[in-house]
Amino acid sequence: MTNHSLRQTVPALLVGTFFLGLLLILFTPYDLRETSLFVYFTAVTLIATAFSFTAVLRNRGMRRYIHLLISAGNVCFIAYLVGHHFVMSTGIELMPFIQNFFYLIMSLIVITQSIEIRTLKLRTFDIFALLSFLLIGAMHLFIYSSENGSYAANLNGFEEQMVLISLYMMLGFLYLNRITSAGQSFRVLLLVGVLGFTTASILNQLLIFNGIGHELIHLLQVTSIFIISISYVFDESTEDALVHDSVFDYVVYSTIVMLFMLASDRLLGTSVLDSMTANAVLLLLIRQFVVAKQNALISHRLHTVNIDLEVAVTTKAHELEIREQQYRSLFAYHAEPIFLFDLHGEVLSVNEAGSSVLGHDTETLIGSNILDIIEQKGRSAYATVLHDLKNGRPRTLDVDVVTEDGAKRVWQLMNIPMIIDGEVEGIYAIVKDITQMIVQQEQIYYQANHDSLTGLHNRYALQEQIERLIAEGRRFSLMFSDLDGFKEINDQFGHHMGDELLQHIGKRLRGALLPNEYAGRLGGDEFIVVAEHDDDEMLVERLRRFVYRPPYFMGGTLVEIHASIGIVRYPDHGSTLKHLLSNADLAMYKAKDKGRNETVLFAPELRADKEERKLLMEGLDTALEKGEISLYLQPQVDASTKAIIGAEALMRWQRDGVFIPPSQFIPIAEETGHIHDLGRWMIHETFQLMYAFEQGDINLPKLSVNLSVRQLFDEHLIEYLTTLFERFPIEPSRLNFELTETVAAHHSDRVLTRILELKALGIKLSIDDFGTGYSSLAYLVRYPIDELKIPREFTMQLEENREYQTVTATIVAMARQLGMALVAEGVETEYQENFLRKIGCDSMQGYRYAKPMPLDEFVIYYMKQTM
Hints:
By secondary structure, the chain is α/β, with parallel strands linked by helices. It is elongated and about 180 Å long.
C-alpha cells in the first residue's frame, strides 16, 4: 500500500474505530455491555500492539527503542483490561500509569531528537517550558484549593509532572510541525495519541468516572493507543537522526526523569512551592539533556567538517599534483613537437619530439628564436601572428622549415597564448608536420585534373580550362581527334599494347604543343587540343608531323597510327562548352567518313549527317531481326575464258526499300560492335550456301568472305567454325577468308597463332586491299597466305597513272614468285583487263563481268556460264 493511500485510509480507520466503540457503549444491552466492550477494547489494543511490534522489527537503533516503548505501553494496557475485567486487584491500577511512563519516555526522545535534527535555538523551547510551568502552577492552585481538596485526594503523586511534560511536548510539536515537513505526520499522531491517553488517564484518576463515562474514558484511551501504534507508518526517516547517539544515553536520561517524577512529590511535598520547585527541576533536567545533545551534535558536526575540509584540501592538493604531472607528461611525451617561447619568439622550452624533428638537442634550441627555424619567406607572416598572439588570440599558420640535415618540411603551427593572471606571458606552439599531407593533396589534385594513363589533362580539367576561356571571352580553336584503327590494335595486340600506344601519344602531344596550347584526353582514344590562336592548319600539320605520322615501335613491332580530326572555333561554332564539343564530334566523324588521316572543319550542314548516322546506329540494333541484311555474291572470273572461278560474299542492307552502301554502315558497325553479330551471320550464311551448292551439284570452286578484326581475335572463333563444319560438312579449301592488310602486317604472335589455327581447319586466306596499308612486306613470308587481292584504288588508276602500273606489276610479280594466287578488284574496262592479263594477273572481279547480285540471280548467272 502506498503512502498516499495510507494517508486516506488511516483517518477513516481511526474515526471508524472510535464510533464503533461508541455504538457498542450506547446500544449494547447493559448486561452484555461490559463483556462486549472488553472484547472490543482487547481486540483493538492487540491490533495496535501488532502494528507497534511490526515497527520494532522493521527499524533499528533509536527507532526500534521508540517503538519498543510503545509496544511495552500497549502490553501494560492489555494487562490492565484483563485484570480489571477479571477483578485482579494486585497491581492492576498501576498499569495505566506505567503505560504513561513508557509513552512519556518515548515522547521525550522524539522531541529531543526533533530539536537536534533542526538544531533549533533553545530560547524558543525555554519559552515553551515557561508557559508549561505557569499553566501547571495554575492547575496546582486550582486542584488544591477547590472543594476542600477533593481533587487532590485522588492524586497519587506525579500527575502534575505528566501533564507538564505533555504540555511541554505539545508546544514543541506545534512549533516543529510549523517549520519542518520531515516526519510531520509521525509527530502529529504521537502528539494526539499521547495527549489523548494522558488526559484520559488523569481525568479518570481525578474524577473517578462510573458507568458510561468510565467506558467513554476507556474508548478514548484505546483510540489514543491505536493512534500511537500506527504512527510508524508515517515515519519518513528510516535511519537515526544522529549516528553517534546511543540508546543507552536515552535510557539513562528517561530513567532519571521518571525517577524524579516518582520521587519529587514525596520528597518535596504537595505545597505550591514544593510543586513549582519539582516542576522547575524537571524542566531543567530536560533542558540540560537537550543542551548536552546539541553540544554533542555541534561537536560531531565540527569534527565532521574538519575531517571533510582536511580531506578536501588533501584531495585538491593531490589533484593539483596529478594535473601538474599530466601537463608535464603531455608536454614532454606528446608525439607532436611542442615549443614554448616568449613574446619575442625566444624558445623557453621544447619537448623531446621538437628537438628530434629538427635534429638539434634541447639545450641548443633553448634560447634560439623560433623565427630562425622558419624559412625567410615565411618569417614576416609569422611575425604578424606573434603580434596577434600578444592580444590573446590563438592563430594557426603553415610555415616552411629546414631541419638540421637540410630537409625541407611544412609545419602547421597551432599557436596558443599562455595567459597568467590575465596577461599573455608566453606562447605554446604545437607542431603538426603536414609535409606528407600536402604531397598527397598535390597528388590528389594532379590525379583529379590529369589522365592517369597519358599524363594529359583529363575531361574535367579541360572543361574547366575551356569554360575559363569562354568566361573571359577569348577566341580559341578546339581540335577533337580520334585514332583510326585503334580498336583493331586492341583486338590484335591486346589492351596493354593499346595503353602503351596511348602513353606514347600523350608524351608526343606534350612535346608538340606551344605554351598557348593545351592537350587532354577525353577517354579511350579521343584527344582534345585547345589553341589560343587561329592558325588551325599550322597546328594540324605540327600534330601530324610530330605525333601521328611517325610510326611507333612497341613490343618489337612498328605500328603506324593516324587520326581523324574535327575542328571548331570559338565563338564561331558555338557559345558553350557543350555546343563546341558536340560540333567538334560531328566534324571528327565526318573526317572518319572521308577515310583515314583526314581533317574537317565544322560546318552547319554536318548536323544532318549526324542525324543520319544516329539513325544508322539505331537501325543496326534490329537489322538482322527484321531480315534487312542480305547476302550478295560477286563473281570472280578467269579473264581469258570468262569462266567463273569463285565469288565474293558481300553484305547488303536494305532499309525501308533503300539500299545503304556498305561504306556507310560497315564503319559504324565496327565502331559500335555490331560487326561481331553481322560477321557471324555472314560466316553462317556462307557455310550454309556452300553446303547447298555442293548438295545441288553447283561446283563453285571458291567462296570468299571478309573477316573483320573483331572476328579474327574472337576467342570463340575456332570453336564456332568447328561447329559449323560439323553442321555443314563442306570442303574447307573452297572457303576463303579475306583479311585486311592492317591486321596481317603486324608481326604479332597472336596473329600468327590465329592464322595457323585457320589454316589447320583447311581454310584459305587472302590479303584484301594489298598495298594500301603498310610498307613492310615481311608478313608475306611469315604467314601462310594463299592469295593477294589488288585493290580497286590501284585498278582504277591503271589507265591514267604509270606509277600505279609499275606498282601493280611489282605486286603481281612478287605474288608469282611467292606462289600466291592473285585477284584484281574493281575491273571495269577492257584496258584494265588487258593490262592485268598481260602482267600475269588472270583472275579478276568487277563490273566488267558482273555486279554483286542476290543469291537467286547469281545461281542463274552461274548456270548460264557453265552450260
